[in-house]
């Protein structure tokens, strides 16, 4: 037996003058009840199988309760613990407001009108995903075809890459990034952030960085004859 069990066995609480075991029973309005099937609502004992407590009053099990109020689901909604009107098809909640999801959209807790049937949120703004995109919290014109974001710009991933926040073309087999540029990995290689081209079996740098950078680059990569 636990220490608490020993304590309650020696000093049992009373409810309406009747001693009871608090491990499996409770006291409600001077009446002892079993916690397995009953509960207390204000000063009333009720069966949890077919009743619900709302605002210290007992109602049938399926009665909607919002905070301490009951309400009619056909005319009202419960949003953030408040009963609000659900007229005009406002069946969803946006914070403490009800809105119609067919004509409105909830953006960061604010109700906004839909400018298009598939309107989406971009912060507190709405946009049509068929014509625009949300990039870094800004609504920008979408590119043709697929649309992705590269920083605050939109681009088509099927034709371009996003390289370190810059949009780079995939043309000519350039399917990899080297810093903010794209390159063709079959004929080039990214050498410490610079693109170098292969010539026969030797690696040749196609850039002209400062001499000190070329020397350090060669030593770090072990390609002493690259430049």
Mean pLDDT across residues: 84
Strand count, sense and barrel status of the largest sheet are:
3 strands, antiparallel
Radius of gyration: 34 Å
Q: What is the assembly state of the chains in this entry? A: single chain
Proportion in β-strands: 35-45%
Count the DSSP helices: 2
**Distance linking N and C termini:** 82 Å
Which residue ranges are poorly predicted, with pLDDT under 50 across at least 5 consecutive positions? 223-227
Q: What shape does the CA trace take?
A: elongated
Q: Name the helicity range.
A: under 10%
Q: How many beta-strand elements?
A: 29
Structural class call reads mainly beta
- Trace the largest sheet across and list its strands: 27-28-29
Structural overview:
The chain is mostly beta strands. Among the domains are: 9-63, no CATH class; 168-227, no CATH class. The protein has two helices and 29 strands. It has helices spanning 3-10, 211-221; strands at 14-15, 18-19, 25-28, 31-34, 38-41, 44-47, 51-54, 57-60, 65-66, 69-70, 76-79, 82-85, 92-94, 97-99, 104-107, 110-113, 120-122, 125-127, 132-135, 138-141, 148-150, 153-155, 160-163, 166-169, 176-178, 181-183, 188-191, 194-199, 202-205. The radius of gyration is 34 Å and the shape is elongated.
Question: What's the quick description here?
Answer:
The protein has 227 residues and is mostly beta strands. It has helices spanning 3-10, 211-221, and strands spanning 14-15, 18-19, 25-28, 31-34, 38-41, 44-47, 51-54, 57-60, 65-66, 69-70, 76-79, 82-85, 92-94, 97-99, 104-107, 110-113, 120-122, 125-127, 132-135, 138-141, 148-150, 153-155, 160-163, 166-169, 176-178, 181-183, 188-191, 194-199, 202-205. β17 and β18 form a beta hairpin.
